[in-house]
Design a protein that fits this description.
The structure holds two protein chains of two kinds.
Chain A lengths: L1 H5 L12 H36 L3 H7 L11 H9 L2 H32 L5 H13 L3 H13 L6 H24 L4 H9 L4 H30 L2 H6 L8 H8 L7 H21 L1 H12 L2
Chain B lengths: L1 H14 L3 H6 L6 H25 L2 E2 L8 E2 L3 H7 L2 H40 L1 H16 L2 H11 L6 H8 L12 H16 L1 H11 L4 H9 L4 H12 L1 H17 L2 H6 L11 H11 L3 H36 L1
Antiparallel strand pairs in B: 1-2
Classes of the chains: A mainly alpha, B mainly alpha.
Chain lengths: ~300, ~325
């Protein structure tokens, strides 16, 4: 409540009015900042502990505990994880699957949304609802038939089975989002192009696509990250070392008795580096994208 | 926007008499663009979904084994299966950890960052804090689970090492004890989830007219008062989106359970998705697993329809209010 009263004082430009209220506000605002920072530190703590112990030898860990600084930089954990999981293979698998899904998923979303948002196909409300529901389905309700289907067409343990499945699942969301965006596409542009005699196909690629490019790139980043983070379907569909993705490789090492603290932490660290790097590169586009998802 | 398209078409119709027939059939010309999507959906979602329901009517051990007709027998068995009920009971706990707590705390944090700290310490402070809260969201859930699995490990885990260092002789076996496993998993999920509502709500707040706040401030409304009277109602649409997406995610949760506890100990953290996975690939009760997945699907669709219904009712009431 002290906080609530202290906030009453109006904003900066009225600051000079009354030193008294400014003092009250001063104490309260530092308290609020401290609480907010504390929440941040609690959230960061597991990352910190992981960093400390990824480069600490097992002896050092059992002698000095998880909170001490490593007495020397110990890289055997990183090396052990790197070699045991054949990390470069896993990294390539993750990149390949996610990138192909991002491109194909965005393409499929664009085609669907072109028909729904601009073509205003009859029954489009139902179609969009169907896509939205498809996106919400639990993957467990699809997995066994998908698993047997992949086997029967010779795609068992194939990355293409995962790529096809995720292209469709991600484009369900993409269609929903792009359809509402394309629903507000400036009709004058379409009219002008149609009067010039452009076909629907040409309008799609020469009028709609260039204007939608920023939205499509946000969508592709989304698809990439979501596919990168997927666990259940890759776990079931990709059964051997040479096809698996990073999260599966890390999780499958987990039960291993040989996994000591530095190896686990190094593994976690190495596995999250690509995600963090990707996030930092696309941070601005991404925050805009998270928002785009929220405004329907 | 629909009106402007119509008027545009009408004006063209006046110019060219043949246009009305073309305009009527206009949408048909776009159908080919829907074809790849329609085929892909039928193959990857529609057909498997129906096949799964079909499987749920059989006793089947998978693979080359024969399918034996069981009618609704699997569903009848579910009704008497304690583990099935436990798994859905735990779904409620997942909703608390992934929807209720993150949405409420996220709302408060977003409001504090946006119109309290952001104003008093500058936008940099609030955006750095926001990025910090969001950090767990960017790493793969399975990776987060592996990290926490180690931190909470009873023997070698960081948490218990710290507790032992502080003089506690036998710290709890966080994930191995049925009494603490579910609360531990819930805390991990809160940690993963919290940044999502904060980011969405902060973006939503930028949409709110600052004059509303200024007017309320001039009227002497305190921060808490303004939070309840302006912030909460103004960002209701985003709250619905967060509630919907997170509730569906909570009902579907799989990876954290798989890497943290595998549903144990003694089924204390079993969830429907993991239970169906167990039946599919571990116990080879494919028909039974399919029945669980079908029930889960129905529950998710029902919950989604209820939330969407509440949303449209709230929107309607708001419109009528104005």
């Amino acid at each position: 409540m002290a906080v609530a009263t202290s906030v009453r004082a109006p904003r900066l430009r009225l600051r000079h009015s009354g030193i008294d209220s400014r003092y009250r506000r001063g104490a309260g605002r530092w308290l609020v900042l401290a609480v907010a920072v504390l929440v941040g530190l609690v959230i960061l703590a597991p990352f910190g502990i992981m960093l400390l112990n990824a480069v600490k030898s097992p002896q050092d860990y059992s002698a000095n505990g998880p909170l001490s600084l490593p007495s020397s930089i110990y890289l055997d954990g990183v090396v052990a994880f790197w070699e045991r999981t054949e990390f470069p293979v896993k990294l390539w698998n993750s990149v390949f699957i996610s990138a192909v899904v991002a491109v194909l998923g965005a393409l499929l979303s664009l085609l669907n949304a072109y028909a729904i948002g601009i073509g205003r196909v009859k029954g489009r409300l139902w179609i969009v609802t169907l896509f939205l529901l498809a996106n919400m389905l639990p993957q467990e309700a699809l997995i066994y038939p998908l698993f047997t289907m992949a086997q029967s067409v010779g795609l068992s343990n194939s990355q293409w089975s995962v790529i096809i499945i995720f292209t469709v699942i991600q484009s369900a969301f993409g269609t929903y989002l792009l359809s509402s965006v394309l629903g507000t596409f400036p009709p004058a542009l379409l009219e002008a192009a149609a009067l010039d005699g452009a076909s629907r196909w040409r309008i799609l690629w020469q009028v709609v696509f260039p204007i939608m490019r920023p939205t499509l790139s946000v969508l592709m980043i989304f698809f990439f990250i979501w596919t990168w983070n997927e666990f259940f379907i890759p776990l079931v569909m990709l059964t051997t070392n040479d096809t698996q993705t990073i999260p599966i490789a890390l999780a499958s090492l987990q039960g291993d008795r040989m996994m000591d603290a530095p190896t686990i932490n190094a593994g976690t660290l190495v596995s999250l580096v690509p995600a963090v790097v990707f996030f930092l590169i696309f941070q601005r586009t991404l925050t805009r994208g998270v928002t785009a998802g929220a405004v329907k | 926007m629909a009106e402007s398209v119509l008027t545009a078409r009408r004006s063209r119709a006046r110019r060219r008499p043949r246009a009305p027939r073309r305009a009527r059939a206009a949408w048909v010309g776009y159908l080919p663009y829907l074809l790849p999507g329609a085929v892909a959906f039928a193959v990857v979602i529609g057909y498997p979904l129906l096949t799964n329901v079909y499987f749920s009517l059989f006793k089947w051990r998978g693979g080359m084994a024969p399918l034996r007709w069981n009618g609704l027998g699997n569903y009848a068995d579910l009704m008497g299966d304690d583990q099935f009920w436990t798994s859905f009971g735990n779904s409620v706990a997942m909703i608390v950890a992934m929807v209720l707590v993150p949405t409420l705390v996220g709302l408060l944090l977003a409001a504090v960052l946006f119109d309290y700290l952001g104003r008093r310490f500058g936008e940099r402070v609030s955006s750095v804090l926001r990025a910090t809260y969001y950090l767990p969201q960017i790493l793969p859930v399975a990776v987060a689970g592996v990290l926490w699995n180690w931190i909470l490990n009873s023997q070698t885990g960081a948490l218990n090492e710290i507790l032992r260092g502080m003089g506690m002789d036998s710290p709890p076996n966080w994930l191995g004890d049925p009494a603490t496993a579910l609360p531990s998993v819930m805390l991990v999920l809160i940690w993963i989830q919290i940044g999502y509502p904060v980011v969405i709500f902060m973006a939503a707040l930028q949409r709110v007219d600052p004059e509303l706040y200024e007017a309320a401030e001039l009227d002497g409304a305190g921060w808490w008062h303004r939070f309840r009277a302006i912030t909460v109602p103004q960002i209701r649409p985003e709250t619905f989106v967060v509630t919907l997406t997170c509730t569906v995610a909570a009902l579907k949760v799989f990876a954290p359970i798989y890497v943290l506890t595998r549903g144990g100990p003694e089924s204390s953290t079993l969830v429907p998705s993991y239970y169906s996975y167990l039946n599919f690939f571990d116990k080879s009760h494919v028909g039974y697993g399919a029945a669980i997945a079908t029930v889960l699907t129905l529950v998710i669709v029902a919950v989604a329809v209820i939330i969407l219904g509440l949303q449209s009712r709230a929107e309607r009431r708001e419109r009528e209010g104005i």
